[in-house]
UniProtKB/TrEMBL annotation:
PANTHER family: UDP-GLUCOSE 6-DEHYDROGENASE TUAD. Keywords: NAD, Oxidoreductase. This is UDP-glucose 6-dehydrogenase. Residues 324-436 form the UDP-glucose/GDP-mannose dehydrogenase C-terminal domain. The gene is udg2. Belongs to the UDP-glucose/GDP-mannose dehydrogenase family. It is an enzyme of class 1 (oxidoreductase). InterPro entries: 6-PGluconate_DH-like_C_sf, NAD(P)-bd_dom_sf, UDP-Glc/GDP-Man, UDP-Glc/GDP-Man_DH_C, UDP-Glc/GDP-Man_DH_C_sf, UDP-Glc/GDP-Man_DH_dimer, UDP-Glc/GDP-Man_DH_N, UDPglc_DH_bac. Its EC number is 1.1.1.22. It catalyses: UDP-alpha-D-glucose + 2 NAD(+) + H2O = UDP-alpha-D-glucuronate + 2 NADH + 3 H(+).
Amino acid sequence: MKITIIGTGYVGLVTGACLAELGNDVFCLDVNQQKIDILNGGGIPIHEPGLEEIVRRNRAAGRMTFASDVQAAVAHGDVMFIAVGTPPDEDGSADLQYVLEAARSIGRYMNDFKVIVDKSTVPVGTADKVRQAIADELARRGAALEFSVVSNPEFLKEGAAVEDFMRPDRIVIGCDSTPAGERARALMRRLYASFNRNHERTLWMDVRSAEFTKYAANAMLATRISFMNELANLADKVGVDIEAVRQGIGSDPRIGYSFLYAGCGYGGSCFPKDVQALERTARVYDQELLILRAVEEVNARQKYVLPKKIRARLGADLHGKRVAVWGLAFKPDTDDMREAPSRVIIGELLRLGATLAVFDPVAMDEARRVLALDFASRPELLARVEFSDTQMAAVQGAHALVIVTEWKAFRNPDWTQVRAAMQSALVFDGRNLFEPFAMAEAGVEYHGIGRATGVPNY
Ligand code: UDX
């Protein structure tokens, strides 16, 4: 099938590459010429395991085209995916300007029936706005052309994006029940046929419910995390091991084990933004989502838990103290630093006077870029950050090690070597990577999150 993807960000590029891999003829459009140049040069603008090979293979096979030519892009696809960014507005609602600009471009240049698929995470009612924007452009041209807007939210996780796309738990598709909507449904069924071969994975619903489902999923996952984080903080105080509790409650199939890991807070491009946007939608309808407000607040506070523990253990004045930080990306297997807890933790430790040696296996360049922006008005603070070449270089001479991201490379360090390199074998683990008893055996003073080993009254 002929597919056009508008926007070559995370979602767009992964969708385009995976659909090309399935044999479709994919045109990827981006207004950012620099991104197009990178892609045409054989590179990819993001770090995502497996993606580069798929893009290379399908480009070579002629199944992927990258260009900034809007007219050619609209002419190409029978199915047009809108996968542009929806950054938060100042008030937390999703900013739809890029989505609507994409819609207007489609209306401006389309010459035959098109299925327009909202792939970006967009609030309930966005499909109506997209439909209107296209209709307005068509009316302006005096063109009477049929089209249908479909909602097909993406549930992929960064770091596992290709795998998630290729092996989805479910495919949510919202279609209208008009004749054009039925035509769109038939095309979408054909496009996703190979995913449904063994068993039907597609959940068909109306457009608004599909839009809402994406927010509901992310809000539920964020809620689980904040709930566990809040309990973990209490566990620290009452001498309970949150990991035992996780297993104890996860074994109930109604609860399940996943997404119950306490830590130093969630980050990324989705949870923080989507929780806020859903709250914002509710407010438009005069409703307040009390649970989500708490989820957000708990998460904001959770990013300060590690600095608080460090402060309780080493004192409020960290001048003269060297702290190593392992992990800067908001999660492993990505260089994404959006809303990453590391940014808050670094800021707080610097404010307390510490000197930092930071390391991430992939996100070093991104960290340099983002931290320079975070500390644009306080360069004297950033001057106390050393960007280390290896994880061992970071711990050299450190009074404490803080683990912020659970990269595989951090899971099994040689503690004898780490201890020998550090001034004091003191570890604050924001991802609960180790068993407290094993750390005690290794001669390391260990503070996890809710592992009954925390500093009391931090
Ligand atoms: C998320 C959703 O999982 C995905 O379905 C959606 O399409 C986009 O948003 P992503 O942001 O890529 O994906 O990462 P995810 O793996 O979900 O992790 C999000 C954050 O939650 C990370 O900061 C992670 O460290 C944190 N997290 C996750 C926890 O703190 N505890 C957990 O138990 C799970």
